[in-house]
């Protein structure tokens, strides 16, 4: 997404639990700020249509089968009215199937510009699966600070470009401070074994840090933001998450490649680990290889 892009439709995915209520509330705020339509979707698991103790009810009683989606839709409408009383959704959609699959299919049908979902452990929807296969940015809504810094992670590769761009837009929109974070991994043991004496190794580490600071400053300049550079040291996932928590960040932004989901970021599976374990709301955006931008 570029600065000129508009968010026209925000899709919130709910499992009718607390995580779903949070996803609706976050999606509603985003839709309201952007003047976008809000669509709320719930997936009825296929097994819910068959009663374990009375399986014939799900097969021989079409009335019960017809009533269930209606009752579930009423429950979703009630949850929306409670979680986001300030905005009425354009649509409330209830379909049978897996949560991620239903969400992805509806996102394609309605042309969603943003999908908002709760984290996988707290909801019946596989948020990581949504992230892997969505063709649009995905926001994983979590309880956390209502205000605070925005942290964009970058490894200086192309897949990280949309993270910096999206984070810069968010910071301009909210007026919150922006931090551009990069992790310096420890040198591999094989390199340490043949490393020069300590003074040279120390000088090398200082040079790595200076180079990281320089590239972070260049990224901030390219996106017209006064973002503060943050260089952390240690295993990538742990170091970045510790910094996000230490800064009490409101939002973590990471990038992925193309339309096939998380294929490579930092150390390959690092993005998935960040999505899974982040202590705050996380925005995942992807680079469109065809257009060379997010």
Overall spatial form: elongated
Binned, the helix content reads 40-55%
Q: If classified by CATH, what would the architecture of the largest domain be?
A: 3-Layer(aba) Sandwich
How would you name the CATH homologous superfamily of the largest domain? HUPs
Distance between the termini: 5 Å
Largest sheet: 10 strands, mixed
Mean pLDDT: 82
Structural class: alpha/beta
What sequence of helices (H) and strands (E) makes up the elements? Answer: EHEHHEHEHEEHEHHEHEHE
Count up the domains. 2
- SS summary, helix count: 10
What's the total count of β strands? 10
Mind telling me the C-alpha Rg? Answer: 22 Å
**Low-pLDDT windows of residues:** 258-268, 289-294
- The proportion of residues in beta strands is 15-25%
Which class of the largest domain in CATH terms? Alpha Beta
Please specify the SSE layout and strand pairing.
Elements lengths: L8 E5 L4 H17 L2 E8 L10 H6 L1 H22 L7 E6 L2 H12 L3 E4 L9 H7 L4 E3 L9 E4 L7 H14 L3 E7 L4 H5 L4 H25 L5 E6 L2 H11 L4 E7 L12 H8 L3 E7 L7
Parallel strand pairs: 1-2, 1-4, 2-3, 4-5, 6-7, 6-9, 7-8, 9-10
Antiparallel strand pairs: 5-10
Helix pairs in contact: 1-3, 4-5, 9-10
Report on the architecture of this protein:
It is a single chain. The protein has 294 residues and is an alpha/beta fold. Helix content is 43%, strand content 19%. The protein has 2 domains: 1-143, Rossmann fold, CATH 3.40.50; 144-294, HUPs (Rossmann fold, 3-Layer(aba) Sandwich), CATH 3.40.50.620. It has a 10-stranded mixed β-sheet, with helices on both faces. The longest helix is centred in the last third of the chain and has 25 residues, at 198-222. The radius of gyration is 22 Å and the shape is elongated.
């Amino acid at each position: 997404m570029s600065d000129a892009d508009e968010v026209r439709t925000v899709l919130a995915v709910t499992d009718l639990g607390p995580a779903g209520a949070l996803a609706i509330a976050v999606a509603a705020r985003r839709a309201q700020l952007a003047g976008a339509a809000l669509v709320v979707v719930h997936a009825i698991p296929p097994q819910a249509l068959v009663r374990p103790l009375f399986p014939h009810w799900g097969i021989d009683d079409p009335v019960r089968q017809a009533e269930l989606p209606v009752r579930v839709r009423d429950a979703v409408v009630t949850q929306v009215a409670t979680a986001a009383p300030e905005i009425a959704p354009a649509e409330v959609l209830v379909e049978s199937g897996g949560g991620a699959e239903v969400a992805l299919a509806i996102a394609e049908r309605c042309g969603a510009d943003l999908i908002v979902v709760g984290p996988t452990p707290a909801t019946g929807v596989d948020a990581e699966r949504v992230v892997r296969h969505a063709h649009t940015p995905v926001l994983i809504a979590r309880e956390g600070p209502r205000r605070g810094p925005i942290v964009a992670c970058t490894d200086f590769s192309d897949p990280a470009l949309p993270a910096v761009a999206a984070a810069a837009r968010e910071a301009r929109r909210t007026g919150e401070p922006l931090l551009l974070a990069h992790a310096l991994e420890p040198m591999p043991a094989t390199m340490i074994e043949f490393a020069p004496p300590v003074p040279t190794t120390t000088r090398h580490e200082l040079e790595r840090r200076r180079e990281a600071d320089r590239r972070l400053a260049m990224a901030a300049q390219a996106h017209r933001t006064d973002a503060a550079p943050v260089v952390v040291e240690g295993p990538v996932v742990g170091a970045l998450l510790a910094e996000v928590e230490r800064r009490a960040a409101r939002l973590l932004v990471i990038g992925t490649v193309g339309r096939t989901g998380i294929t490579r970021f930092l150390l390959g599976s690092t993005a998935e680990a960040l999505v899974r374990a982040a202590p705050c709301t996380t925005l995942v955006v992807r680079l469109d290889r065809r257009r060379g931008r997010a």
